[in-house]
Amino acid sequence: MNSATIVQKLWNYCNVLRDDGMSYGDYVEQLTYLLFLKMADERSQPPWSQPSPIAKGYDWPSLLARDGDDLFDHYRHTLEKLGAEKGTIGLIFGKAQNKFQDPAKLRRLVVDLIDCENWSAMGADVKGDAYEGLLEKNAQDTKSGAGQYFTPRPLIQAMVDCMAPKPGETICDPACGTGGFLFAAHNHVADHNPNLTREQKKHLKEKALRGYELVQSTARLAAMNMMLHGIGSDKSVPIVVADALAADPGERFDVVLANPPFGKKSSTMITGAEGKVSTEKDVIERDDFWATTSNKQLNFVQHIKTLLTQHGRAAVVLPDNVLFEGGAGETIRKKLLHECDVHTLLRLPTGLFYAQGVKANVLFFERKPASETPWTQKLWIYDLRTNQHFTLKTNPLRREHLDEFVKLYNPANRHARQATWSAEPSTGSGRTGEGTGPEGRWRVYDYAELIARDKASLDIFWLKDDSLADSDNLPPPDVIAQEIVDDLEAALEQFRLIAGDLGSDLAVEPASAVRV
Q1: Is 300 within 8 Å of 328 (Cβ atoms)?
Q2: What is the pTM of this model?
Q3: Positive or negative CA dihedral for 165, 230, 183, 389?
Q4: Cα gap 308→152, rounded to integer Å
Q5: Is residue 466 over pLDDT 70?
């Protein structure tokens, strides 16, 4: 059975459970608990014959032996018992609750859908892809807000291809969501290095990856995602439930891949003893930060710089306001340009994320040793936004849409790049690119040009938006309507972000934020 068939089989049953009021997210969570118990039981049998991490009486056979209300009560007690455990079991089952309403439907899921498959015998690609499929379907349920933890996989793949992690390197995602960057980096190393030594394989499986996630329920999904992709073990998975911004963890990593949350809460309402309401700004103050700010994205930029080893490299998804915001934003950009080699910026189109209207970018940089002169010499910018039209369903981003960028990025030797933009019209030189001359999407800026811009803004664009210039080539009405909605939502999001730094009570937590 392939991954698509498994996803469809499991997802069809979700529609049955929705009649009982179970949400998509609840369903994926309940599947996570049951899959873990089933796989733990499988691995205790030949040919694996491993000691089961689950206490007898709370394991998979104990569920199979029960029915009706007896199964219902035992399942609830099992979740409570395992939720009190330490390590991976505690991470998977922490704060777990039974969301089933009908014992018969729980019994059917246990017996007919999960027990009839040998999950441990499946390849990691099959069961990992199946779980990814469930996470993506869950993300598509916009009402649940689950999309805030899901970055489009084609974008993740392109970012990982550019960073090209190597055997022996350590890789971190400080806002890992459901773990997309981590398993993509794992797969890249494994796929591009088929002759890994035993030590290298062990390092890749157990030590190379580290993810931090603030939300317990999301960390649970990330942990299961890692296990199903063959990363970590029943005893240890590389997911930490913690607020990554709270402190410097002390560890340093060769590669950081991240899509930090775009949502921002700049203040907390405090109600005093007499009912008087006051506002306290949520400001992160750390000795290793260049500036003190309540802007979550700017804090993540500073945190990621801290996480990197010397010459460590990062690729980070960031909203537009990080590129142009004044105050702390200007300070941080100037420091970043000076202390790191900020070498590449990918301007992303709208319509990629489940938080609609978000205008985002991917910033690539390397940490460097202390220097009196700036490390950034040239910033290469690829504009994938202007005159590009993507939607989540009718025209989703695919990996091939990023092929040109990855080729021009030149992971093998990024110092041998060639621009496709020039002030003069193309003379048919045959250079790589959708357009060359003034229409080229790949352009380079010197440090002097960047630092001379107002507030050292990196919000740079040069292509003319001609999507509406020719009435004979207008996009379909539904695309135009979606673009209008996206632009309005993007404007509102930028207002929220900027208002928050001004200390305005108008700054509110967006309904959804973009995460992995």
Answers
A1: no
A2: 0.84
A3: positive
A4: 24
A5: yes
